[in-house]
Structure formats: structure tokens, C-alpha cells
Amino acid sequence: MTTEELRQATSPQWCSPPVLVAGWGRFPVCEARLCANEDLGLVTPHGSLSRGLGRSYGDAALPAKRGDALTSTVLADRLLSFDPETGILRAEAGCPLWRIIELFLPRGWFPPVTPGTKFVTLGGMVAADVHGKMHHSQGTFGQHVTSVLLEVADGRRIECSPEHETELFDATLGGMGLTGHILEVAFRMQRIPSPWILEEVETFPNVPALLSALHQAGQHWPFTVAWADLLNPPPLFGRGALMKGRWALPHEAPSRLPQPPKSMKLPAVFPNWFLQPWMIRWFNRVYFYRAQRVRGRRVVDPESFFYPLDAVLDWNRVYGPRGFTQYQCVLPAEQGLEAHQRLLDRLLELQAPVFLAVIKDCGQEGRGILSFPRPGISYALDMPLSNRTQQIVDDLNDIVVKGGGRIYLAKDALTRPEHFRSMEPRLERFLTVRRKWDPTLRFRSALSARLFGDDP
Amino acid sequence: MKVIFLGATRGMGRALARELARRGHSLFLLGRSERELEKSARDLELHGAPAPVGYARCDLGQPELFEGALAAAEAALARADTVVVTAGLFATQEELEANAELAAELLQVNFTNTILFCEAARRRLLARGGGTLCVFSSVAGERGRKPVVLYGAAKGGLTRYLEGLDHRYYAQGLRVVTVKPGFVRTSMTIGLKPPPFAGEPDRVAKTVVNAIERGRTVVYAPPIWACIMAVVRRLPRFVMRKVNF
Asked: How far is the C-alpha of A396 from the C-alpha of A353, rounded, in Å?
């Protein structure tokens, strides 16, 4: 036996025994073996799917079958190259966004698109084709990706990009990891005038006023997001705040670098009864008053602007072991406010426990075949899991189907396949590309089993 | 500092090398795979290490490579003043008991060959008037314990060697830093159930770089393990026979 073989024998495939894994919503939970190594290529042959930091909310990063092996990318976290001329950064799939920000913010660069947390991997950002407060101005992350190194089902490594193997590239953006193991990602970073954000906050008495202000703000501000109280009964229902931002110019910003905000850790999973609706009703009120107080312009550090929830690590634990789901859908812009009103009315009627509601303006559709955003308004609604949640999701999906909208797979845990098929005319095209590269469906997830009908 | 680093591509070594890079120290990497070394070298440059970060092949399983690798490092990093060794093998006691060949390999690499590498590094450091030799041993070498009988024996021997080296060459300017990590979540410990007080590589890295910069001789990382091992060292034998750690 050579030394190499001996070492292979020591840690057979670097796979853990079965452990319980879940998405960020802590529902559903499933047993899986996790295979991880700094040299990602050693563990990709064993996994039926890649999993990063587990920040997708539902079952996108769970195994199709209990006990299946997943390739964990988190140890493959190196930066590989950066060209200050073009701004193109290349890194391994497990590289977390926080590492990129920590290293590049002081040098005057920032990722062009960031989701609402920095605890995601680059591979995950490509697989979910993430968007953020800048969707109306910058599109999804995928629009800035210049190339992806993908290990496909037969083990070949394919460098795909907008110029090469474009069909595979388009299927991989927003393809939820189902086209293969993403090994490396290259994307264009953005030059920033200062490491600070100029923020302006406004408050509004109802959702229609909020939506029209959100739309108008999008013409002038690169970053916009709205928060609304969809929990308190009328007349408080629908009150909201609009946050607008842009990079501060050097003369507007402090000359020092922003200190990364201190984050707090929740020591344990809270009990299910901890988060009561009355508490959240008050939280929503307090949030609104706070927004009223800070109305106007101020300079803030980018981390508190882009990642307010990262201030509490493991904040998903407050929902308790039952978990929660985030229902996120986009309703097309061109059909007027009718569908929006139906959605809001339905939420009121069902007395849905929407603990947190975030509304965003979406711009042009990206090139990812299954990429979520399209022109319109996106709603993200956090709800604790209960025996009513399935019914609420079904009802909302009915409205979304009728309104010509769609849901975001990175958040979803409960959508039914028939709903998904009727809101996704693009699915057939995606499945065709997937079958071409992976005829035996080697890559699958709990999500693909639920929504695409893969055998578990 | 100008650091020659054996083991920077993986686990705690990767985190430690990044922390050195962030603080602007120069690095030269030694390791088994050129492909991995190349990637880590670029990563460390982007973390702030002065470019270019060079590398050369070196394997604790092949002592004949040691002198050549160290010479290449010294040629690239004029006047290297620090050598860091984080490389090593790990296997559970069960795996080692089941496979005598593997046990022989682990004892050879973690004890004899690591010491031979340190000897080569020590000679070169002393030849230029002294320097720092930082080596990763383990808390497993502190007390004979059920789950780490063989691994702990090699690490215990290594610790003792480093202690002697410090006594013998301190006056000539050699600074020996012995790092004793407790349980840290890395690919080496994947699949093992993390005990309470398990550490994260990034925190361990900060602790160790501080220790190197301040010239401390023994570092426990995370530091809480100093207290834990102080208790474990004092436990009577009849207790150690009963407990399973």
C-alpha cells in the first residue's frame, strides 16, 4: 500500500456519519451524510448535490433520499485570482461572501449584487441566482458572473460562461445545484466611491402608497427595499417603511473604514411558544416608530444596511424547533395592483402570521433559465410553521398563478408540484438541458423530488 | 516575519497562514500537492501576503525531500526567520488498531519525520543566528487517553522533543512555540462528534499568531483547553480507566 492509498483508507471519502440537516427555516429536517474536504474534487464524486452554508430556507440543499451523501463545499473557500483592471474575482465555490467583503471593502470594491445575508457561499449565490436590494438597478448575481467551473454528472469539468456552453451556464444560474457540482465561480466586482452607504428612510400609511414610492425611488436610487406591517389588524395593517440607499461619495463619508458591526449569538433553540403573535405585533409597531424616528438621510455602514438580520447569528432559532418558512413570490408589474390587493386581502382574511414582510422592486429578468426575479414586485413573508401553513401557501400560490407570478425556489418548502408547473412555463426547457447533461439524474435534491417529480 | 510554512493548504494551517497574510507577513509554502499549493499561494496573496507567495513540494512521508524544500524556501525568502509546521496525519484509535500498517505510518510521520523536519529547520535557523520554530503538537499528547492512545503517544513525544529543543537552543536565539490545539472543527475531525469547547480554525489562528508575535513557548488553542488539560493531567488512574475521553 502506498502512503496515498493509506491516507485514502484513513478517512474514507471524508464523509460524516448521517447527521440531521435542514435549511435556514429549520423545516423540513432530513438525515444526510456530509462529505467535505479542502480539495473539493476529492469529495464531489460522492455527493448527489452540493451544499454550502445552508442558507436556502426550504429543502433546496437537502438530499432527495434520507441518508444520501451531500458534498459540503464550505472547506473549499479560497480566493483564486483578482484582476484590478477588470474587477474580475475568481474563487472556489465554498468561499463565503463575508470573506470577500472583509477583504475587498477596504480596497474599494464590493460585490455588485448581494442577498440579505453575507453568510452564503459563492456556489450558493450562483445556484439560487440571488438578488437583493439592487435588483432593479443591477439585476441578479448571475448577470455579473463571467464563468463557472462545473463538474457535471459524468465527472467532466466544464468551464461554462456567457460565451461557452451557454445553455449549461443558463441552466446553472438559478438551477439550484441540479446541473452539477459548482467548483469555482468568477464574477465582476464593482468599484465603490467610499466604503459607506448613504441611506434615506421614509414611512407610508398603506401598501399602495408604499408600492408607488418604491417604484419611483427605483428610478434614482440603486438600492431600495420596503418593509410592511402585515400582521397588525387595520388600520395599522399595511403601514410601512421605505429604505433607499446608494454608495456615499467621498466627501459625504467619514474618512475612516466602517467597523464590522458586532454580532450576537443565540445560545439555544428557543421553545416553540416563545414567539407569540402579540410580541411580533408589538415588534412591528416598534419597528414602524423607529423608522419614523430615523426618517431622512444618514450615512451608515454597508453591513448594517445590507445585512440587518446578520446582527443576530442563528436568528432562525427564535422560531423554535417547529421552524418557519419564508414565502417569496413576485407579481408582474404590467397587470396593475389587482393581484397585489388580492394577496393582501387573502393574508388579512386568513389572519396569516406574517412576522416579517419585505417588499422589493424587481427589474429585468436575468438569463438563468429558472432564475426567480422578473419585472414586478416581490413579497417575502416570514411565517412560523403550524398546521395552517400549507393551506396559507396553497392559497397564496393560487393567487400567484392567476396573477402570472412565480415563487423563489431558494425560499420554498411547501409549494405543490402542480402549482409550480402552472407558474413555470420555463421548467420544460430547464429539464431538457438537465437531462442532456445528466441523463440518469445523478444530481437531485429534496426540492427536485418534490417539485420536478424525481424519484427520491 | 518571513515564514516557511509546512501544511498551509488545509485545516488550521490554512487559517493560520491567512492570519499571517492578513498581518502582512511574507510566506513560502511547503506541501504535498503542487496544485493545492498553487491555489493556496494565490489565496494568501489576496489575503495580504506580499506577492509572490512561493511554494515547493515537501511531504512528511518523504524525509529525503526536507533539505531541498527548505533550501528552495530560503532561496525564495531571503533570510526566513520563522518555520511553522501544522502538517500531520490523524486517524481514530479504532482505525489504527485495525490497521497496523496505518499505525506505523502515522507514528512515523507524526513523530520521527516531524522531528527530522524540525531538526533540518532548526539547523538552518541557528545558522542565521536564530529564529522561531512553531510546531503543532496536540492536547492529545498531555495524558494517555482511551481515544488517542497511538496518536497521543506520537504527539506526546513531539511535545517532549520541542521542550528539549527550547532548553538546549534558547540561548542561541531559537524560539520554540509549541501549539497544543484542543478539538477544532476542521476536515481532520469531520465525522467526529465535537465535544464542548470545540474551537473554530479562525479563532485558533488569531491565538497562535499572537503567541508567535509575543514569543510565548506553549499555547493552548482555544485557550480554555489549558484549564481542561490541567484537570485531566491530575485525574487519578482509576478515573482515567473509567471515562471515555
From this structure: 13
